[in-house]
Amino acid sequence: MPELPEVETIKKAVDLAVCGETITKIEVFSPKMRTSLAEFNSPSLVGLTITKVTRRGRYLLLTLSDNRVILMHFGMSGVLRLEPNSVPKRKHEHIFFHLSNNQLLRFECTRRFSMCELCENLDSNGIPLKLSLLGPEPLSEDFTPEYLFNASRKRHSSVKNFIMDNANVVGVGNIYATEALFFSNISPLRKADSLTKKEAENLVLQIKKVLQKAIEAGGTTISDYRHVDGSEGKFVQNLKMYGRSGKECLTCGNTILQAKIGGRTSCYCPKCQK
DNA sequence: AGAGATACCTGGGAGC
DNA sequence: TGCTCCCAGGTATCTC
Predict the structure, then answer these.
(1) Nearest Cα to Cα of residue A136 among A73, A70, A204, A192
(2) Is the CB of A178 under 7 A from strand B?
(3) How far, in Å, CA of A255 to CA of A242, rounded?
(4) Nearest by Cα to A14 from A76, A84, A89, A104
(5) Separation of alpha carbons A86 and A68, rounded Å
(6) Alpha-carbon distance A118 to A140, whole Å?
């Protein structure tokens, strides 16, 4: 499931391969994923060049030469591949972008939670207006202990839901929220506004650290996520808490517990995380 | 305004 | 073996 490190990994590879290339043909195989793909049947896209590839949160943005943006989100099973046309189409591949260098950008999504749409309304930085409500990038200088502490005041939801909310900070999904809270010794069940300044500082540090490490490892492959060349992310070997319910805590040996927080499974060590 | 619940979707695994 | 049920997850949308 692509979180920020996975999308950043995809972004780097796609940037190298498609920047400056022209779209020569688009093939739409399914009418929709989360949104309709019908607009990609428009001939107005053919002949446009991809001028820039950027990432905002878990969104990938392909800026076109007419200043429109192809906005992609990978949901939990979305995979973007760069493969030649000779590779047979897979069952859940929904849209192909043929490029002038004879490469093929193929979007696959088994569970159809992914999104691919064309955006015309952009801000001054070329970011679609629909992304304007997103919080700061966790690896940017805007994501500081002061910011997290202040933003969490009077917030009564759990700290885990709080850091997974894209309005507060983008790109932190279940895997990295679980890991960062473990390394911060903070229980995911705590209310966001119960964090002390010291805890907020540690949590910000751990979120940055775990995301940075995951990017260096090429992301985390749990089930569906793949690199654009089809290989798997290696960060799964580093997971200390996510998916380890019932097993021993690697720090204290206590049994790891599981709870439903905001409808999502959450693992935590009741001894290490207070 | 904030918080919680739910729909969307498919494959895999558990249980019978 | 084959069936049914549940679960995973990010985002949008709904209700309270």
Answers:
(1) A204
(2) no
(3) 13
(4) A104
(5) 30
(6) 27
Q: Which of A2, A128, A138, A188 is catalytic?
A: A2
3-state secondary structure of A209: helix
Residue type, A133: L
The tokens for A56 are: 């905002």
> Which residues are CB-contacts of A125 (< 8 A; sequence separation ≥ 6)?
none
Angstrom distance (rounded) from CA A163 to CA A150: 13
User: Could you read off the pLDDT tens digit of each residue along chain A, which spans 274 residues?
Assistant: 677 888 888 899 999 999 999 999 999 998 888 888 999 999 999 999 999 999 999 999 999 999 999 999 998 888 899 988 889 999 899 999 999 999 999 999 988 889 999 999 999 999 999 899 899 999 999 999 999 999 999 999 999 999 999 999 998 988 889 999 999 999 999 999 999 999 999 999 999 999 998 888 876 555 555 666 666 565 677 789 988 888 899 999 999 998 889 888 899 999 999 9
User: Are the beta carbons of A193 and A155 closer than 8 angstroms?
Assistant: yes
Nucleotide nearest the Cα atom of A75 (by C1'): C10
Residue A134 CB-half CA count within 13 A = 17
Question: A69-73 and A59-64 as β-strands: parallel, antiparallel, unpaired?
Answer: antiparallel
Nucleotides of strand B within 7 Å of the protein's CB atoms = 2-6, 8-11
DSSP label of A13: H
